Amino acid sequence: MQTLFILNDPPYGTERSYNGLRLAKALSRQADQQVKVFLMGDAVACAKAGQKVPEGYYNAGDMVKMVATSGEVGLCGTCMTARGLADEELVPGAARRTLADLATWTAAADKVLVF
User: Fold this and answer.
1) pLDDT tens digits, residue range 93-110?
2) Domain boundaries in the chain?
3) Sign of the torsion formed by the C-alpha atoms of 99, 105, 108 and 111
């Protein structure tokens, strides 16, 4: 089963992206599951490397890396450019993608979850 997660909210300030990443990580650990995550809008900041958060607080960048080890993580290239986020600033496993990539992923997915 292939599940696509589309995240829109920023990494901090709300917990929507956090919850989407948690679920994606948990689902990706199941043997029969294939997970893809597409970050759009302010969610592209989830994949920024070098995030420094208070002790005991979740780190969205680390969560994106964990999902990328067993799934695929794409970021809206237009959204990255609008926010001044360069490819070199992304955590390992996250990659710039296009709306055409998102359309392909959506068409191939058995389930699409939007956060």
Assistant:
1) 999 999 999 999 999 999
2) 2-114
3) negative
